[in-house]
Design a protein that fits this description.
alpha/beta; 11 helices; 12 strands; about 15% strand; globular
């Protein structure tokens, strides 16, 4: 099976489901392990400044991971971000926060081997009494040349155009019903000049509500498969999209790592790009 790169054991190997999820107890035990770096991914720094996992750095989706046109940061920018975050080629990187799967997908896209997600919500971490801090982390910078982009993980606007109506590829819109129907713009792009509402023609609507339990942990595989009932068990290629890529990356992560689907790509430009590009077709119910 041709899956995304397999996570290899590191100096700090957690007892984690599928080798990619770490529980809070494991992370707390490794917070001061130099082989482990922790990253909070969010759309602003307000929550991080109030409190964050002790020692975690912040990656802001809008200022670090996207440019002003909502394009994903290139390899050079991600390399600089990893370097100032204290990440080395052999680091175990653990993401949490608003969009941890987006951080994991980005690091996998550019070839980092050992990337994980904290298997609980931010609030659960604090509520269970695990170490928090309000002091911004300032790890020693490293030098890091990322290995290079993995084209199996990403779909651009052209690839999505080509996939419309292609029986071998399913375009998966994981936004809410209101967004899919063009009744709501959230949170980016649609209200800007030239922004349009709707969905990519032929896209299957598959909201991703219900992926997590009350602790913010991913549900068992059988329950996750039920969430993705709209696409069935087939072997066609999947392209996920949302608005800025956060939910699309979450769908990619679950489908790839927790459900074992291959040939899953993220359209990281998502609706923030598609809805504003002149000439892209837009579907409506």
């Amino acid at each position: 099976m041709n899956t995304a790169p397999v996570i290899q054991p590191s100096a700090a190997e957690p007892a984690a489901r599928e080798g990619v999820l770490v529980d809070p107890a494991w992370l707390e035990a490794h917070l001061h392990d130099p082989a482990v770096r922790v990253v909070e991914v969010d759309v602003s720094r307000l929550g991080y400044d109030e409190w964050h996992v002790d020692g975690a750095v912040l990656w802001n989706v809008y200022t670090d991971l996207k440019d002003a046109e909502y394009r994903t940061a290139d390899a050079a920018a991600v390399g600089r971000l990893a370097a100032r975050s204290g990440i080395r080629p052999d680091s175990t990187v653990v993401f949490y926060g608003y969009a941890p799967a987006m951080g994991l997908w980005l690091m996998k896209l550019y070839g980092h081997v050992d990337v994980r997600i904290l298997d609980c919500s931010r609030d659960t971490w604090q509520g269970e009494g695990h170490p928090c801090s309000s002091v911004p982390a300032e790890p020693a910078a490293t030098g890091y040349d990322l290995p290079g982009q993995d084209p199996r993980l990403r779909a651009d606007c052209t690839a999505v155009r080509q996939a419309i109506g292609d029986p071998g590829t399913t375009i998966l819109d994981v936004r809410t019903r209101e967004e899919y129907a063009g009744e709501r713009f959230w949170p980016s792009g649609g209200m800007e000049a030239g922004g349009r509402a709707g969905h990519v023609p032929s896209a299957v609507h598959q909201p991703i509500d219900g992926l997590h339990d009350d602790r913010g942990s991913f549900r068992p595989a059988a329950e996750l498969r039920a969430v993705f009932s709209a696409i069935g068990p087939g072997g066609s290629e999947l392209i996920t999209y949302c608005t800025i890529g956060g939910r699309a990356s979450t769908a990619w992560f679950v489908l790839t790592y927790l459900l074992g689907r291959d040939q899953v790509r993220v359209y990281d430009g998502s609706w923030a790009e598609w809805g504003r590009v002149a000439g892209t077709p837009v579907g409506h119910p």
